[in-house]
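Quick question, first post here. What does this chain look like in 3D?
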Amino acid sequence: MTDREFDLIDELYFVQHYTYLKEVLGWEDEILLSTLQSLFEKGFIKCLKEPDLEIFTKIDLMVSGKELYFLATKKGLMNHHAL
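> Answer (accepted):
Ran it through. Tokens below.
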């Protein structure tokens, strides 16, 4: 897990919208979206259309990530705590 992935998982103990992550972390869109994509591909985060509506299909976060909510998975939290 990279330092950026670690910092991002830190914000995803609860469901958070992209705009919240952007504001809190202060990262450029490309960095935030690519880090979210990396975490999603590793199974460390869930993507949600609404706070309680998970997306189960493959998704390109570089295209649609700005409209979504995110939450760390158990796997992501376990890896986060292991560091």
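The longest strand covers residues 45-50.
The radius of gyration is 11 Å.
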